[in-house]
Amino acid sequence: MRDRYEEDFEAPYSSSARHYAKMSDQEMDKLFYLNAIRSKLFDTMKQVYSTTWQVNESTLLYANDNQRAQWMFASKMLSVYGQSIPQVKHLLNSVRPEMQEQELIDKRVDLIMKLVGTKIGQHWMNNFDQEDGWKYVAQNLYGEANQLKSDEVDSFLLTIDQISIINDLLQGRGSKYRLGYNTNNAKSVETIKHHSNKEYVDKAAKILVELHRYIDKAKKPKGASLPVRVLLDLKILRERLPWTFIKQEFGDHNNNESSYNEYTNIESTDLHPYKGDHNYTLMLADFKKDFK
Fold first, then answer.
1. If we measure between CA atoms, which residue out of 135, 153, 152 comes closest to residue 71?
2. How confident is the model at residue 17 (pLDDT cuts 50, 70, 90)?
3. HEC per residue, the chain
4. How far apart are CA 213 and CA 175, in angstroms?
5. d(Cα 187, Cα 178) in Å, to the nearest integer?
6. pLDDT tens digit string along 212-240?
7. Of all residues in the chain, what percent carry a pLDDT higher than 70?
8. d(CA 252, CA 259)
9. Mean pLDDT, the chain, as a whole number?
10. Which positions ≥6 away from 158 have C-beta within 8 Å?
């Protein structure tokens, strides 16, 4: 028996569904690269829960409809993050390695077709890529006037989570999920090899893991550029990694080209940008030990 979420799908070969399924990588990222929005949602929840109950009681008690919808959306969106990893893992394990990339592409298309076949999915596609578009989605899902059932919302958010993870894998940002998907990672490792000093070429895969370990959780350009600068100063990298690679591999939600170039410019005669920086000192020591 089909669940309620699937009942009013759009015909699978309709023109709008085909359009969404054939979006470019950049268009996909606008709708399904969720690292930046998850960071915003986390900050939204921190504002509510970072002080005492006595301070926040009246804020919660007299919150307006928009505030309540945003809090509910933030809480739910963060709580389902990664919940669909088992399904993606099963997908990868069910086909030969050389078929994994195409299987992921096909699954992403299927999920997007499912998404745009519902009103709630169409609303996401039409609003989420706008500035603060998540607030419109929050109101649609959790506002007082919504008529959605909780199982519809849960199915929708899990579908979004699965598309987001698959999209990250296909865009070469999948190492953090630890799913063993290597097609795009291999390209990234080759890029790092090309920019590494010869004695560290065989450590390129480890370098990629360490870069993700630090860059993925950075919030500002200085922190996001720090691992590359340390690798340059230790002469593990012979030249800085291109910004095009950094943007594709890690996204640009916490960095930008001009800041990255400034922080990783080892030819500059200006004061070292990380002079006196405690995090730089710690990372320098860690990388010296890890890559000796």
1. 135
2. low
3. CCCHHHCCCCCCCCHHHHHHHCCCHHHHHHHHCCHHHHHHHHHHHHHHHCCCHHHHHHHHHCCCHHHHHHHHHHHHHHHCCCCCHHHHHHHHHCCCHHHHHHHHHHHHHHHHHHHHCCHHHHHHHHHCCCCCHHHHHHHHHHCCCCCCCHHHHHHHHHHHHHHHHHHHHHCCCCHHHCCCCCHHHHHHHHHHHHCECHHHHHHHHHHHHHHHHHHCCCCCHHHHHHHHHHHHHCCCECCCCCHHHHHHHHCCCCCCHHHHHHHCCCCCCCCCCCCCCHHHHHHHHHHHHHCC
4. 10
5. 17
6. 889 988 999 999 999 999 999 999 999 99
7. 91
8. 11
9. 85
10. 80, 83, 84
Tokens of 107: 């699954």
**How far is Cα 124 from Cα 278, in angstroms, rounded to an integer?**
42
**pLDDT for residue 206 is more than 80:** yes
User: For 79-133, what is each residue's pLDDT tens digit?
Assistant: 999 999 999 999 999 987 767 877 888 899 899 998 888 888 888 988 888 778 8
